[in-house]
Structures are given as C-alpha cells and as structure tokens.
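Look at one record.

>
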Amino acid sequence: MLQHQWRVTKYDPALRTSTGLFTGDEWILFSQLGSTIDSELLTPERYLWAEDRYVDAVERFLAASEIEALMIEGLQTGSYKPNDVDRLGLRSIPVAEGQVLSATGEIGHVCRLNLREHLWCRLQAEGAFFVHFGWDYYMFVGSSRPCEDAIAETIAAGLFVEPAISPYHNDAED
C-alpha cells in the first residue's frame, strides 16, 4: 500500500464530526445538476468549477509523482454507452478493464466520467500512484511520493486535501 494517501474533496473538514462524518449541506452528485441544495441552484458553471478543480488536482498529483500513464481497474459501467453525450456535452469514450490511459487528456476525461457517474473505476500505476473515486464526490489519491507542492496548489485552488486511506483498494493491494 502506498505510503502517501489523501482524500481530496470540496468539503470543508471543519464541518466534520469527530468520526469524520461531513455535516454540511452540499450537492454530492452530478445528477443533482439543476437542483437547489441549501437554497443554492447547482448550475452548470458551479458544477464545472468543482469538477475542473478535481481534474486539475489529479494532474498536479500525477506531475508531482512523475506518472505519465494509469491503468483502469475494477471498471463498472452499468448503463454506460460509448459515444453518449451528457447534459454538459461530455462525450463518453470506449473504456476497458486494463486499458492504459495517458496523462495527456485521457486520464482527465476518465476522471470526469467517474465524477459524472457515467462509470466507476480505479486509476492506478502499480506501486506508484492511484486515483479512486468514492460516493458523494469523494476522491482519493495515493502516491509513492509526498507531493507537497501538489497538495498546496490544490488547496490554493479551493479544494481540501486531508490524509486518508482510500477505502477502494482491491484485495490484491492490501
């Protein structure tokens, strides 16, 4: 298991209970687009602000870890159909278990597909790096490197980075 692991979210840790439960009233799913949560409409602009920061965070951590490719593992597609287009114009792309994605665009695109509930998968470079997506817009990043600059830049961009072990490891990693 990688030594350095973090939970990256849009959720302020000051709003967590002593057991880690988030108590704020926030949107948690792409499917809530157009809904009002805590008297605030989830607009496409508001949604994309958060999603862009998550993808930027992944790119920062990849660069800090000197990782150029990740493999898709544990792929779950449900009703996913390649070439579908969602409400914000994101086009689905063909994906497969074991597929290797490059850091130049492909990884970011598959991150967006995860965040928008089109599919679920772990993105991994064995023994060096991972990105896992959880329920309710949680993202976990792990690296063999400490990634201090990536952490600072991600926080400065408006997300929260907390030390946390991903609950989405497969049995072979444990």
